[in-house]
Fold:
Amino acid sequence: MLEITLASIVAMFSLSDPRRQKSLRWMAEGLYFFCCFTAIALYVSHGKCLDRSMVAVVFVLLNTGIFSHAWMKKNRLLPHDLFISSLAMFMGFYAIMVSENLIAIYVSLELIFFSVLILLLLRSKDVWSIETCFKYLVLNVLSSASLLLSFLAMIYLSSSLQINDFMSYHPVGNYLESAIVILFTLGISVKISSAPIHSAMADIYDSLAPVALALVGILPRFAIFVLLWRLKNIMFLDHVLWSKICVIFAIFSWCIGYFGAIRQHKIMRLLCYMGIAQMGWMWLAWSAASVEALEVSLNFMCLYTLAWLVFVTIIVHLMYRQREILWLDELSGIMQSSANYILAISLFLSIAVMMAVPPFIGFWARFAILRISASFFVSCIGMLFSVIGAFCYLNLIYHAFVRVHYYEVILLDFRGVVLAVILNSILVCLSLYPVYILC
Amino acid sequence: MINLLFVYAASCIALLFSINRSNRFVLLNAVWFLSIIAIYLTWLLFDMFDESIGGFQMIMSYSWLPEWGVNLAFALDGYSLWLVVLTLLLVPMSAVLSYEWIHKGLKEYLLFLYTIQFLLLGCFMAVDAFVFMLFSEGLLFPVYFILAVWGLENKNESSLWFFLHYFLSSVLLCLAFTYLASELGGFSWDLWALSLIENKVQTIFFIAASLAFIMKMPLLPFHICIIDAQTQSPSSLVILLSGLFLNIGCYGLIRWVLPIVPDAVSCYADVFLYLSFISMVFLSFSIFYQKDIKKFIAYALGIKYSFLSSCLFASYRDHNLALIDSAIMQMFAHGLAFSGLFMAFAMIYHRTQRRDVSWYGGLSNVMPSLSLWFVAYCFATIALPGTVNFASEFIAFFMLMKINFAMAVFMLASLVVSCAYMLWIYKLVFLGSMDVDRQITDIKPLETCLLAVLLAIIFWFGMFPRFLVQTVNNTSLIMNNYLYIRR
Structure:
């Protein structure tokens, strides 16, 4: 199925003609959604039989599909740059999943991040955006260097370029193993935009258009997950050190994410900091250093992504005084534009899932992490921090549903809301019967 | 029967959702229709409940997440029966009164109210800790929205603090339950009640869970957010907050904490006992400084719940069954009496739009009917003989005197003071002459009926408490048996 998708994208690109924009647009949308929902159906019906990395790619497709749909609808463009970047990213994902060579995996990872970077540069709105892109470039270059060193060390340890040889390597407790763990975790912490090396992310979130933001915010995290899934053995090289580093990153992410979000008044910056905080939960899951931990973290990431997509889809499809909604205050007109229960419920559900409040599915995913985490004490710290996160999400809810505003928020495209409703239905169904996503 | 209750609760929400929001008359008719069904269900519940059986009845259980040890399990016993009855009684009353008191967004308000009913029923009937947690924490959003949208002048601040306060208690509860479930391998009440738990695990669970449940009650030092929420809530929500919400904390202690960790209770209950005692004394002094009548009543409720929580901890520390019974009876009694008192004051407030004591005086000249009902509820709250409050508190004092004479004397003094301040507030508001001629109408027949129903129940169970005592006592005996089996 993935091959079909890639082939189709290549075909579309090569056949693209400015005179046939409309048909190509519909073809692109249809293909994206067909792939996404087929993959979800496969996952639901086969459960664990479907490779976890495939699930990650499903969400990548879903993510890009939704935003390309939204962006194209709004701007009436055929975004060749988006297609090129998507193609490169999907090829990168595919290569990580099928490569047997450590260098090839590293190059595939870099392919993903460079395509994200190129997209960021092409989609930048002003000079400030370009500056933030360069910050992102510098940070990623440093993280890539760290990852490259760790890969070289892995090759040295296993005396082979083959991933199977590394996966069958038994740790002996030398310093090189510890160094690999440290370099690897440092490298991926930047890629997934978790604290403490997160400084450019808030500016990037602020400066970019939503479609590029969807790629920056979600794709790298799934890429790292796929990387971890392929290189599981890295957790066991020095599992004590791995757990400790994960716990440290988790606590940092919570501190910076939750406290940073308190003072935010722009929606995208708020989402950025909350994303950093959510990465803290991913780190907590990874600290358990087991395959189950990786699965739980994937489930958590998928659910958070779904909820995030619903929220941003609705925001992107609303207009406030002839422009996009940027500030929290501007959400206040949503309930006043019409008594649109479906829009309100969808928006509320997405926020509630991100907030991880029972009985919504977000709570289940976080509860699964609590169950498998290495340290119950650290879990307690995370839960106490989540009270601060609740305050930030409550701020969103207050502005959207409670605060009275005088300007009307206009719904730009009802189809975007329909999409949000479909995704929300999935979230509600999973809340009622979470076995598919949790066990 | 439990299926029926959930179907009823879900149908309420579905029915209201289908009605056009601009059609208030249809909404009122729907509420009346649902109220009649609630009365029928209450009668059916009493009919089907076997008072001779102390254990769980009408059990409904489905396997939900067997890998996690989570079952969708519900049942009724002598403890939860009265809270379910209270829910079926108070929610329709609140809904009927909302028609008079809520002018904007009535449909949405009623939807939230009936969502609260659904969640409360699930909370009181759950016999799986995870399910209990889901239902009790799910109450957070409906209450927040009602408070934030329909609340009074400081609604934004009070709703925010209430949310954070309740969320923090939810977090503590989640951690405590997760910790114990990971030790025991499941969330079922039977598993928890019959398992031998290590002392260290018991201690950690007891402290975390007790704190979590105490935060849901207006006890020092957690009383500020709850009392503030009660003051700023719209009147029909206050009826539910005072009658049902505070009981979640007490019920949680009785069901999920105190019988589960008896060794930890024996060691550490004194801390919470003295905390409750200090809370009672502190609130008794603080109440005299209150100028807001609603806050005054909320403080009075806080004093009663401080007494109730001291009874709870003392009862499980010394395995005093009579004290446990009195605690359950107090929950039921306070739920009726204080809901009625808040209801009576709300009837005044919606005519005058004033809550400060200084504005009032001589109200009985213009509202003679309401003044009678108000004083009747005042007497009910101060446990006048003949009321169910008296029946419950008399047993409690008698038992407390055996446990700790000095503390019981202080508590009795606090309750005597409660008589004083209730009569004092009545005097300030209703007696004397009016300085300014105020055009205030007396209560309507509908309002009289609602007040009469609650008062009739208070006096009925005060005069004929046999059924109440028997059901509660049989359940307490079963709970005691669980402790003996474990030992």
